[in-house]
Amino acid sequence: MTGPAPTPVYLVDASLYVFRAWHSMPNEFSDADGWPVNAVHGFARFLLELLDRARPQHVAVAFDEALDSCFRNEIYPAYKANREPAPDELRRQFAHCKALCAALGLPVLADARFEADDLIGSALAAMRAHGFRGVIVSADKDLSQLLGDHDEQWDYARNQRWGAAGVADRHGVHAHQIADYLALCGDAVDNIPGVPGIGAKTAAALLAHFGTLDALLARIDEVPYLRLRGAASAAARLREHREQALLCRRLTLIALDAPVDIDARLVRARPEASALMRLCEAIRFGPMTRRRLFDAAGLDFAAAAASA
């Protein structure tokens, strides 16, 4: 007889949705200082829909602040070097989005050395120890490596959900193999080279046989005898680039020891009407958005507007 399902904690990959709003929302909104806030409007819309649909009691929103100061850059300076620096107008909008989360009473996770993925992974590991399960709100395949038996990932835009058992159908490898898989075939999005000549299909086939990168490297002599196209050349490349594969795995593996505070179990805080109203004024939200934000915060909009 099975007991009740563990209580969910919703862990939101904010950057994905801020960037999506930045690219999709028309550039017709500006804050009180004249700076664009189209991404803030789009992110607010996403956040309001999420809070209305999920009604989370335990939740955290993770932001990337380690844009060029991440511990991975210390290991491999070329990490994410293929990306253009975020323009000032987008950086300002990230700050507004963080302030919006705080004004709604949502715990915010951000750190100068750890990325949002690491903060989500560390929060999930810590919350699991207290009997929670994770709902990771993101489409990012990297985060699938965090999925355990009771966890799920939610691609909010496509309204698709999957657990650990569904990762293989999506990515060709199991959840616990994602970091090893990306270490082998690389990840162009993050400028992680992988092992030259090892593509996605070969990486998946090797992990299907050996299980882990460590087992594969320990048993390279077996690779030429596999029923795998180019097996001999794959073995040669693995021998030549063994250290690079291990380095890449340090980049693709999500850290579980980032500094996150879960003392309050990531419970939503009681928002302050005055702080939320000041933010609405600064971002110049319209009356409909303001009312929706106050409703989501459980606050009386009419009373706050009258006293403003």
Note the topology.
Layout: E1 7-13, H1 14-24, H2 38-54, E2 59-62, H3 71-75, H4 88-103, E3 108-109, H5 116-128, E4 132-137, E5 152-155, E6 160-162, H6 167-171, H7 178-185, H8 200-210, H9 213-218, H10 231-240, H11 242-252, H12 273-283, H13 287-296, H14 301-307
Parallel strand pairs: 1-2, 1-4, 2-3, 4-5
Antiparallel strand pairs: 5-6
Helix pairs in contact: 1-2, 2-4, 2-13, 4-12, 7-8, 7-11
**Domain module tally:** 2
Radius of gyration: 22 Å
Q: Which fold name is given in CATH as the topology of the largest domain?
A: Rossmann fold
Structural class: alpha/beta
Kindly state the number of beta strands: 6
- What percent of residues are in strands? 5-15%
- Per CATH, the class of the largest domain reads Alpha Beta
- Element order, helices and strands? EHHEHHEHEEEHHHHHHHHH
Number of helices: 14
Major β-sheet annotation? 6 strands, mixed
Major β-sheet strand ordering: 3-2-1-4-5-6
Morphology call = elongated
* CATH superfamily descriptor of the largest domain: 5'-nuclease
**Helix share bin:** 40-55%
Low-confidence stretches: none
CA-CA gap between termini: 55 Å
CATH architectural arrangement of the largest domain: 3-Layer(aba) Sandwich
Output mean pLDDT.
Answer: 95
